[in-house]
Design goal:
Layout lengths: L2 H5 L2 H13 L5 E6 L4 H9 L4 H7 L1 E7 L2 E9 L5 E4 L8 E3 L5 E3 L5 H4 L6 E5 L2 H10 L12 E4 L6 H5 L7 E4 L5 H14 L3 E3 L10 H6 L1 H5 L7
Parallel strand pairs: 7-8, 7-9, 9-10
Antiparallel strand pairs: 1-2, 2-3, 3-4, 4-5, 6-8
């Protein structure tokens, strides 16, 4: 594969937009596996996504598109569709198959099971931001319980399905992008749920989203000094 195709030249940028907008309409020879390829793993590691997070949550998908072999990670949504991301060819995750939110049930520790626990939810726009959070948790976001449930919007079309689940929780931790859409959704949830909703975006306020915050090693080196 040429350097232009690998590293984001004009053709590679066009392919990224192509995949986002046309939803794999020209993809051929699609192969889905339980584990991502080494190429896809390397892409995530370069984003500072922890290897244990990749191993725990990522499947893999490969396909041919416009004379390129695309290696990507994927994660199933609740309706059986695949949420797919390649750091080389996608500007943001895209859905292959049926749209749907992603829900991950938290698992309290043995000690926590014996206590009366408030119900905590982590809310993300896409699974790459969730991977970034998992890679950072323990260094920052220390006050958020590690047994919190996780809800991922994936696509704007899933908004009603997402909003319908929020009322089941005592604490809503919002880790949404700082785009206009992300800010609007955060403000909407805060207005609906008041003190139960906590906007956590201040910790990555200089970046478009949590995944971009995680990319920067200089930030990570000082992450232990940041308190949420």
């Amino acid at each position: 594969m040429s350097t232009e195709k690998r590293l984001g030249g004009e053709k590679a940028t066009a392919k990224g937009k192509f995949l986002d907008h046309l939803n794999f309409g020209y993809a051929k020879h699609i192969s889905v596996s339980e584990e991502p390829s080494d190429n896809a793993v390397d892409q995530m590691l370069r984003m500072n996504i922890a290897r244990e997070v990749i191993d725990r949550y990522c499947g893999g998908i490969e396909f041919d598109c416009m004379n390129c072999v695309v290696h990507a990670v994927c994660m199933k949504n609740l309706n059986g569709g695949l949420e797919i991301y390649s750091d080389l060819y996608c500007q943001s995750p895209v859905t292959f198959g049926k749209n749907g939110i992603t829900f991950i049930k938290g698992k309290p520790s043995k000690k926590a099971k014996n206590e009366a626990l408030d119900r905590h939810l982590l809310l993300f726009a896409d699974f790459v931001d969730f991977f970034a959070y998992e890679s950072l948790h323990g260094r920052i976001f220390k006050e958020i319980p590690d047994w919190s449930d996780v809800l991922i919007l994936n696509q704007a079309a899933n908004l009603n399905a997402l909003l319908g689940r929020l009322g089941d929780y005592d604490h809503l931790n919002l880790l949404l992008p700082l785009s206009i859409a992300g800010r609007t959704l955060s403000k909407t949830i805060e207005s609906l749920y008041g003190a139960s909703a906590r906007n956590c975006s201040g910790i990555y306020s200089c970046f478009p989203c949590l995944a971009d915050f995680t990319r920067h090693k200089d930030v990570l080196l000082n992450a232990s000094k940041i308190k949420l």
